[in-house]
């Protein structure tokens, strides 16, 4: 096939036919030298200027182990399986953390990847956070994975809401603290192994930004 199966159009088509944005992200724990995998939601696909292959946008709490693992070794792998249509995207790539400016993990992705001029990653981070009001409070909880014996009285944990002109100073502070913990994970794919019921194609990103596609034996 001449076109890569990994593109914004193909991913949106697969998502539209399956309605599933959950994927598995694997990182390397530098201490144990072991892979760690977890399920996350793909929030968005960012178009890259002059290329057909999008960047994957995920989200997480900046305090979680996956963030320190990515900072130590940005090479990650994603497995995105669409069960209804039996399509699988296994994506190897390089991840960057988009954290709140001024925090130790702040990383200016725009200096590394040629994004369209209208893409402001900090604006994107805030927009994504504001679009998930039911989950805002998660980012002001004790660090995810903390043993409950060390974080008792969950009924007293602060509730976070989108601030309004009527919000109290305390509520506004809770929002700002939660937003500070919220970060994006942006993944630049370099190798994509795509499989459907009809074909399997391995696509590799070349130095010139174009993709080379190689049909391979299934499965």
Gist?
Strands 1, 2, 3, 4, 5, 6, 7, 8 and 9 form a 9-stranded antiparallel sheet that branches.
Characterization of this structure:
The chain is built from four helices and nine strands. The protein has 219 residues and is of the alpha+beta class. The chain has a domain at 8-118 and 182-215: Electron Transport, Fmn-binding Protein, Chain A (Pnp Oxidase, Chain A), CATH 2.30.110.10. Strands 1, 2, 3, 4, 5, 6, 7, 8 and 9 form a nine-stranded antiparallel sheet that branches. The chain is globular, with a radius of gyration of 19 Å. The chain starts with 7 loop residues before the first helix and ends with a strand. The mean pLDDT is 90.
Observed structural traits:
219 residues, Pnp Oxidase, Chain A, nine-stranded antiparallel β-sheet, 9 strands, 19% helix, Pyridoxamine 5'-phosphate oxidase Alr4036 family FMN-binding domain-containing protein
């Amino acid at each position: 096939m001449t076109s890569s199966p990994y593109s914004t159009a193909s991913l949106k088509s697969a998502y539209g036919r399956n309605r599933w944005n959950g994927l598995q992200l694997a990182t390397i724990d530098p201490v144990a030298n072991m892979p760690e995998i977890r399920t996350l939601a793909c929030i968005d696909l960012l178009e890259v200027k002059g290329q057909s292959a999008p960047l994957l946008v995920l989200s997480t709490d900046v305090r979680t182990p996956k963030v320190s693992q990515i900072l130590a070794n940005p090479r990650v792998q994603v497995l995105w399986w669409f069960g209804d249509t039996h399509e699988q995207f296994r994506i190897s790539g390089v991840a960057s953390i988009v954290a709140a400016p001024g925090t130790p993990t702040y990383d200016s992705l725009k200096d590394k990847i040629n994004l369209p001029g209208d893409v402001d990653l900090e604006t994107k981070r805030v927009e994504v956070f504001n679009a998930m009001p039911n989950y805002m409070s998660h980012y002001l909880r004790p660090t995810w994975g903390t043993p409950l014996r060390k974080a008792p009285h969950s009924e007293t944990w602060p509730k976070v809401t989108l601030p309004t002109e009527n919000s109290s100073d305390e509520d506004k502070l809770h929002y700002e603290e939660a937003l500070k913990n919220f970060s994006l994970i942006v993944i630049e794919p370099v190798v994509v192994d795509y499989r459907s019921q009809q074909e399997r194609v391995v696509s590799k990103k070349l130095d010139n930004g174009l993709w080379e596609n190689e049909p391979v034996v299934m499965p």
